[in-house]
């Protein structure tokens, strides 16, 4: 059983819903999951887990939400040395930089030395139809598969 942190930012609930769904999949596999709003955490908290997922919606013109800017900046100091990690989030394809916050967190995790085990999960607005939930379930399951396979390279 792994101890996994899912930290997220969500203004209108879409990213939170993704976080909830990922958590439910992890719990089906009997992992211990901590779900928290990113703005309530310090970057150092990431060091207390066997794996981390960071989720965020995108704001402005491909920007991070204001409430997680500090967390993102302070991550620069962090050494995550091989920690299995991935990012996820909700966005809107009518904006030129769709789900850019997912890319920003993925890159920041990588810069901190985390092992990105899975390409970021991006969803148009909310989990709506069955296929959205299935994609999200597949993302969570693949994360678990890759988490314990050090040689697996993120696609
Ligand atoms: C002012 C504003 C700017 C936004 N900018 C972007 C953007 O640059 N890229 C994007 O993919 N989505 C953008 N969005 C869409 C939100 O990311 C989207 O509504 C998302 O589902 C919100 O997630 P949440 O429910 O977790 O807060 C923007 C929305 C607003 C209101």
Automatic annotation (TrEMBL):
The keyword Disulfide bond does not apply. Its cofactor is FMN. Keywords: Electron transport, Flavoprotein, FMN, Transport. Residues 4-144 form the Flavodoxin-like domain. InterPro entries: Flav_short (IPR010087), Flavodoxin (IPR050619), Flavodoxin/NO_synth (IPR008254), Flavoprotein-like_sf (IPR029039). NCBIfam families: flav_short, PRK06703.1, PRK06756.1. Belongs to the flavodoxin family. Low-potential electron donor to a number of redox enzymes. This is Flavodoxin. It comes from Pontibacillus salipaludis.
């Amino acid at each position: 059983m792994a101890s996994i942190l899912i930290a997220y930012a969500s203004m209108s609930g879409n990213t939170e819903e993704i976080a909830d769904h990922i958590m439910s999949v992890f719990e089906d596999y009997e992992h211990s999951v901590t779900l928290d709003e990113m703005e309530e955490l310090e970057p150092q908290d990431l060091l207390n887990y066997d794996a981390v997922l960071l989720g965020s919606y995108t704001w402005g013109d491909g920007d991070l939400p204001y409430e997680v800017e500090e967390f993102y900046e302070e991550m620069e100091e962090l050494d995550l040395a091989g920690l299995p990690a991935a990012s996820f989030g909700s966005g809107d394809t009518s904006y030129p930089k769709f789900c850019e916050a997912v890319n920003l967190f993925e890159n920041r995790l990588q810069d901190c030395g985390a092992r990105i085990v899975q390409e970021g999960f991006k969803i148009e607005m909310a989990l709506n139809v069955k296929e959205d939930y299935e994609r999200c379930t597949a993302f969570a399951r693949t994360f678990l598969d890759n988490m314990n396979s050090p040689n697996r390279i993120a696609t």
